[in-house]
Amino acid sequence: MSISRVNQVIILRKTRSFHRILGIFLFAILVWVAVTGLLLGWKKNSGGLLLPYTQRTQIHPNDLWLSPKQINLIAASFFKKEYPTETQKIDRLEIRYSEGIYKVVAMPSFREIQIHGTSGKILSNQLRYSDWIEKLHDGSFIDFALKNETEWFKLFFTTLVASSLILFSISGFWLWVGPKLLRNNR
User: Fold this and answer.
1) pLDDT tens, 4-18?
2) Quick one: 118 and 142 in the same domain?
3) Domain identity same for 121 and 72
4) Residue 65 has what pLDDT?
5) What's the confidence (pLDDT) of residue 2?
6) Taking a C-beta distance cutoff of 8 angstroms, is the pair 164, 22 a contact?
7) Is 115 within a domain?
8) How many angstroms separate the CA atoms of 57 and 117, rounded?
9) What is the DSSP letter of 56?
10) Which of 80, 96, 127 is the last residue of a domain?
11) Can you give the CATH number for the domain in which 80 is found?
12) Regions of the chain where pLDDT drops below 50
């Protein structure tokens, strides 16, 4: 056996050990990321389980829409009345012209209310499970729980998972191609 062949065998054995340890570590995390990613991929087709159905209304082109500021006041008043023990912060407001509605998402409850664009009537009040699943998917649930706005855990988690997956792929490729190279060098 030549020295280069011995070195190749040693590298292959160390890679196999590294790959096994990394695989054990990654197993639960990758299953977690895969399951939450699958749920997020299906959220619009989940029959309203993960994402509330978008209400559709009839609005005539000449109707005057309420301003986002007015919608913000309506939503804040609604959350204060419906959930007096919880402080709700309006996270985002979407304007859906084609459906004639505003969508308002509040945190920390992951509540979505849909408001008629011209009358200000509340059309829907439901939980947005997809936002919660997204926080599980990218690791930001820790930052959310700790009220950490810098999202340091999300950055750490995504860097760790992505780096581990890259190393796992490279070591897996070497475990596939390494023995082939050894056989061809005989």
Assistant:
1) 778 888 888 888 888
2) no
3) yes
4) 93
5) 56
6) yes
7) yes
8) 9
9) -
10) 127
11) 3.10.450
12) 1
Backbone angles phi, psi at 107, to 5 degrees: -120, 150
* One domain, residues 58 and 117: yes
Helical segments of the chain, H only: 3-41, 68-82, 129-138, 140-146, 152-184
Tokens found for residue 88: 């709700």
* φ/ψ (deg, to 5) at 91: -85, -45
CB 142 within 8 A of CB 128: no
Q: Are 113 and 104 in contact (CB under 8 A)?
A: yes
User: What domain range includes position 90?
Assistant: 52-127
Helices (H) and strands (E) in the chain, counts: 5, 4
Task: Examine residue 19 and state whether it is found in any structural domain, yes or no.
Answer: yes
| Dihedral Cα 79, 151, 147, 71, nearest 10 deg | -20
Whole-model pTM: value is 0.76
Domain co-membership, 161 together with 119:
no
pLDDT at residue 182, as a whole number: 77
